[in-house]
Amino acid sequence: MSARRIFSRPARFAAIAPYVWMVLFFLVPFAFVLKISLSQTAIAQPPYTPLFSLAEGWSSLSDAFAALSLDNFRLLLSDDLYLASYLRSVVVALTSTAILLLIGYPIAYGMARLPRRWQGIAMMLVIVPFWTSFLIRIYAWVNILQHDGLLNQILLALHLVSKPVVWLSTDSAMYVGIVYSYLPFMILPLFATLTKLEPALEEAAADLGATPREIFWLVTFPLSLPGVGAGALLCFIPIVGEFVIPDLLAGSKSLMIGQTLWLEFFTNKDWPVASSIAVVLLAVLLLPLLLYDRLQRRQLEESR
Amino acid sequence: MAARASRLSRFNVASLTLGLAFLYLPILILVIYSFNASRLVTVWGGWSLRWYHEFFNDRAMIDAAWMSLRVGATSATVATVLGTLAAVALSRGQGFRGRLLFSGMLYAPLVMPEVITGLSLLLLFVALEVERGFWTVTIAHTTLTMCFVAVVVQSRLVSLDRSLEEAAMDLGCDPFRAFAMVTLPLIAPAVIAGWMLAFTLSLDDLVIASFTTGPGSATLPIRIYSEVRLGVKPEINAICTLVIGLIAVVIVIASLASKLSSDRGESAAPL
Questions:
Q1: From A27, B113, B192, B249, which residue has the greatest number of CB atoms within 10 Å?
Q2: Chain B residue at shortest CA distance from A18
Q3: Residues forming beta bridges with residue B36, ordered by sequence position
Q4: Is B27–A136 a contact, with Cβ atoms under 8 angstroms apart?
Q5: How high is the ipTM of this complex?
């Protein structure tokens, strides 16, 4: 016990370097996003009017507060384009998460029922595609879904369609891409929960006369809900801000908010509007982020 | 064992098979077509290394690949040191001030949309008036990947038998020596896996690199992305195949390392 306490003090010192790093490169940058979201757009380099600089002393601070403007946020509210983007992002993320759950659960369930020595291999097989580049995996689907790609060739050869179907630049292509990319994120937390379930519980239910279906819905599924929550959040949050997949696979008719932010930043060079988009996006994601943080922490404390 | 195996229903087997096919077939198709002699995806022109030649003669692409490898190796190394320290602090340092904020800052980037992380870091770099290029991308990638390292190492530390460290200290080791001689060798597989994960994540990232890089220093994903927007090109298939090959080597090394050290760990345990 005493040794544990002795170890604890230097362990706390270990926090200093990563702590400083994260404050400097993760927390402080958000202050800049907030600051620039409140400033005016200007045709300059960098393209915004500086609010204040410490070099001019603290007296400039009061001027700066007077100059704060909510114009960018007003713009976000007044233009339907932005609201539509936010809405589309949330709808796409919810739909994808539901599809991911429907596909991922049976796979994770199958993995959890494998003999123990096979489970490690199955888990490895699910993780490996996650290590292969995200961009490459999306590109692989561009290969398959393009006009003269493999999918159309197969469909034509089987006489299921008479002329090539347009797959690329559609919402279905985007959903395929999202499900493909995020599937490991859904499977792994589900598998972690399912594999920890006590088999005796299911056996007891069977002994008491429950059918396999009843066992699943009354015992297994309710007990796996923490895994469902973790997987859903792990997919939902990043999908809301997704840029690459909708950009390469979906059409350009309606944009997700990540694409709108990208457009404002790189094409329109409107940094203040891009920043306010980011601030609102963060506000939208705050609740799921807090939930996720709590789940993550509880999971690590429990396994201790 | 037999009782466990028999729990596998036909539905379980089908969903496993289909799921794995879904995960692997697209990558397999991509690799096969990188060896296609024909420029058209519709036509199979026989096996050929033509597109690999094309890549090795593409100066801009090679430069981008070199840039990515350097960023990946540097950021993964820094991220592994910082992430391991963070993991030790979280799992061994009890209740220090700001622990809640610390763990929150480490978990948030795992799910934070990359457009937000990228934009916020860029605004910081612009405000500090640093020249953007290799170092800004490296710092950005370190920030993201150290969180993944921290989670990987922390899960190993949490499952570790702490009586080993305590025994070392009871036998007269100071905490630093106990950590270096006992804890570190035991968590080495997780630390190595963390480095590999950090490296591949950095090699993969498009969004954060696009925000934080400067003119003339594009990474490989940035080059690939600008090519892919113009359509499918067999040369890109070749590059992707090379990247997949590199990552496969990295994974094999990582799993060998973890196997070796777990064997050693088991034989050391009875002592």
A1: B113
A2: B82
A3: B47
A4: yes
A5: 0.83
